Amino acid sequence: MGESLTPRKRNISFTSLGKEETIPLHNFWASTGYSAGTKKLQLTRRQSGARLNENAAEGLEELDELANYEDFHTIDWLREMSRNRLRHRQITQGLRKTFLQKIRILHDACSGWLVVLLIGMAAGTCAGIIDIATKWLITLKMGVCTNKFWLDQESCCWLHEDQNSKIDNDSCAEWRSWAEILGGHRGHGASDYAVNYTAYVIIAMMFSTLAAVLVKNFAPYACGSGIPEVKTILSGFIIRGYLGKWTLLIKSVTSPLAVGSNLSLGKEGPLVHIASCCGNVFAHLFPKYGQNEAKKREVLSAAAAAGVSVAFGVPIGGVLFSLEEVSYYFPMKTLWRSFFCALTAAFVLRSVNPYGTAHFAMFYVTYNRPWLLFELVPFALLGVMGGLYGAGFVRANLFWCRFRKNSKLGKFPILEVMVITLITVLLSYPNPFTRMDASTVINELVQECGPTSHTNLCDYNVTRHYHGLNTTFVPASPSGGLGDGLKTALWQLALAFLFKCIITVFTFGMKIPTGLFIPSLAVGALMGRIVGIGVEQLVYTFPDNPMWKTDCQFSNGQSCITPGLYAMVGAAAALGGVTRMTVSLVVVMYELTGGLQYIVPLMLATMFSKWVGDALSGEGIYDGHIRLNGYPYLEQKREFTHTTLAADVMRPRPGEPPLKVIVQEGMTIYDLEELVKSNTLNGFPVLISNDSQRLMGFVCRKDLIVALENAHNRPEVTEDSPTYFTLHCPASVSELGNSNPVRLFNIVDLSPIAVSDHAPMETVVEIFAKLGNRQVLVTHNGKLLGIITKKDVLRHIAELEGEDPEKIMFD
Hints:
Blueprint: E1 10-12, E2 15-16, E3 19-20, E4 23-25, H1 28-32, E5 42-43, H2 54-66, H3 77-92, H4 99-140, E6 143-145, H5 153-156, E7 175-177, H6 178-183, H7 190-218, H8 227-234, H9 245-260, H10 268-283, H11 287-290, H12 293-312, H13 315-326, H14 332-352, H15 376-406, H16 413-428, H17 432-435, H18 438-445, E8 460-461, E9 481-482, H19 484-507, H20 517-541, H21 563-579, H22 583-593, H23 599-616, H24 621-629, H25 646-649, E10 662-663, E11 665-668, H26 669-677, E12 683-687, E13 695-700, H27 701-712, E14 722-724, H28 731-734, E15 742-743, E16 748-749, E17 754-756, H29 761-771, E18 775-780, E19 783-789, H30 790-800
Parallel strand pairs: 1-5, 10-12, 14-15, 17-18
Antiparallel strand pairs: 1-4, 2-3, 6-7, 8-9, 11-14, 12-13, 13-16, 18-19
């Protein structure tokens, strides 16, 4: 998955009729296009071929690495696990061990913990730098700190800022808007508004355009969220360069630019991709993980957990997110290492302190008023609304992305980014709830109104008299009729909600880093705050209603309803409706806000959101984009309920040419070369004979190419040289009188997965999902009938569901 390096020649030996020879490999690289930099080793087999000696074990590992997977192909999990067991036996075999061997064993045992430690530190550092840069770029559209231009608005006005009015504040003397800088005076007239508006639009356009140019020219894989592709890679798919160094660098630079342009996107999703890039880079420092695709994915699962951990400051939620939403293979040891990686990343992020507060949570809340039993009804309603929004968003976004992909619009990614940015900033500036970044708005919406709150959200008509004195008193949690400011805020909330719902559909999927966590949370928080104010006014207007009369009492204007809690629950419902997360989402929301006692409302809204979303669309946004891009991802959560058989899916189909096979004896070097050139299959079944059609084993295409290249480097081997795939040279080959037959038994998989032609496809799907193999052979009474690949299974499922099977493009 990393950068391509200049290949070195290898020495690989094949035993020919009792001889043990070492043959240099010179021309394999040009013929296959595969490149990797590794040490020179030798593959040797004992003359008997019965078992590997110590050098052979090391050599076989090298052969497997040499015959690596091509780009946009699926790995064979069983093969990779076997390679890892062989490597481990080679290290630990023998009773007497030297000091260096003991050091090597210790290093092998500790390498897993060491690599996740490095990944956690790198992910935390990257996230801290990105957070600080993002805050500065966001406020740069508004103005500049005169004394220290590198400070954002909050840091510049630290001693003067009212922490409870981040949206409507007038800033401080040290912070100057662009109208003040260009006009030289502080004012609020129409001309100043126009200057600030123009500067806001121009700077946002510059940020988004620069991000799009960098992505297109230097790292095309740095666009989008990255989570669908990371999820596909963790399932065993190869996308070379997607987790490379250039992708890491460009996505780290462009994510703050994209968020700073005020587009309806976030940096949290791209942080999962960035952390996975860190995992891939550090995995190559350890051969145990860098040279084994299955082991590497254990490291990438831990890296994904660290990505969510630093994205929101939620280490436990990050581990659960990796387990529930991203990872395909998640053994217990990966759980422990993911926990350690997320812990390390969170510790480093806390040391950087990008939020500038004493709290690690991004949206920390201070209220602890208990929720009431009757509130479960509006909480469930929020869950239903979140599910409706999520289903609608998934369908609309997939429709737009499909249109972009199949139309001329996809050829002009930079122009699309510029147009969407222009529309976004022109419509968002007049509304304070869309002018500021989504994280600030969410933090404002989940907070409680108090005596020092001066925003329109807390403008209630509350006046009380004490001890006969006409004294205005604002309680800790005021409640009353709607004030003029709150009425204005409700209109602004409704407009912001509609605007965010629509513009996010067109934003997600553009060719810049586009995260979806924060926009979904913002939509849900806007929706929840509106519902919360409505419930609060309902209770205030009808205080004697038996549903809340006993539990909800007003004392000096203090409310028992917390609209900020509804914003929190609404945010969880919207994000759950879009992504279909459940357990991990509840834990993430708890860690985000610190509201431990609100887990039950969060669970209720999340479940209703998932039920409604699944009923209307059936898949989350990430699974939808995986399907849209045609990736060979076999979802383990979905059940195969059809009644088809293996014979209905296998190839060759009726009317197709017969399956290309290898006979264990009787084929020449020329025959095998023509077989490889005539098709693009990933492997070939090995039969005992054409007459019997009995299955003997399976040979991977890449291994066969390596063997043929080695054979050509032997001067005594010609195109007419016979080959055999058995342990000992058969009599039919010896009788030919050719002294140079080539034995290819070493590359044969003698135990391929095979099923009967009457096996139900439900079983075959489970084999692919649980074992992770690339193909399954179909037999009848031991005779080969055909083959089923992962692509065949996915196309069959798509065809049964009424979809286009040709959309599955990769093996």
